[in-house]
Amino acid sequence: MPSRFEFERAIRRSGLPPLARLLALTVATWADTETGRIAIRHQPAQSVLLEATGLSKSAFLSHRKTLLEEGWLQCKSPERIKAQKEHAQNVYSIHIPDGKAGSPGDLAKTDKPGKSDKARSPGDLAKPDKSDTAGSPGDRAQEGEVGYAPVRLGRQATTRVFPSSSTSSSPTGDGEQAGNEERIPDAFAYCQPLIKAMTDAGLVVSWQMTADDWQCVARIQQRAGVDQMVKFALGAKSRSPIRFAKFYLRAGWLGLPPKSTKPAPQPKHLRVLPDWCKDPDCDEITRMRQVEDANGLRSLRPCPECHPNRKDSAA
């Protein structure tokens, strides 16, 4: 297994697509500088990688597939039961494919010392250059000052979503699953009306989901509305009892259309009848007229003046 710096230099010379390089270098930030191994406690979750790279879920999966197929990354996925019950996640390791490591001469060509290094004496080379240092601890913003941000190291919780400062664009992949839309703050709290409506409708299911799934449900609720989601869930069928709300997310919530802005039609028993036309052939209660045809046969027809279903009446 290469060291972290060997891996980074190989990625620099790899010719991979820019976003694939970004993902590879981001994963390498959790690797040990000497051994290149990523400890289990430092394994990044998918939500952490999405936040760190700014990629959509579809773009992330596409470029991760490229890195896996070409041998730059290896990913060991947990069993489905462990992922659901124990929140186990993927285990990544970095590698350099055969023939991609380069020679020591390549390093000398690409990493030539600058003129300032040639002019310095051997004794000066042992001293750190101020321009190469990241600054002293005193240069960093302290807690309470503008620009202070706590440093997060290691594994982040898979169910925690950190707010993003960048503006996301519309998804280009699997609809809501693309994850590149603007994230809804505290999606779990936003979905509480849906959870209550589902429970009141007799649909008692488990709402254990990942942060990305909560974002999908929240955006669907924002777009389609609670009533339409509950109506769909009541009509959903499965061979086995439905125990998880994620079933409805995969079974059709993602494809629900936006809620209609047109007001719902008024029930017939609540419609207000127009004023009676007082025609002698028109019944005041039924608003039906007796009409005689050419053969002398009489029949009942809606009154064209005061029946609620006349053509010129409002819908």
TrEMBL record:
Residues 108-132 have a biased composition (Basic and acidic residues). Residues 163-172 have a biased composition (Low complexity). Residues 94-182 are annotated as: Disordered. It comes from the Bacteria. This is Helix-turn-helix domain-containing protein.
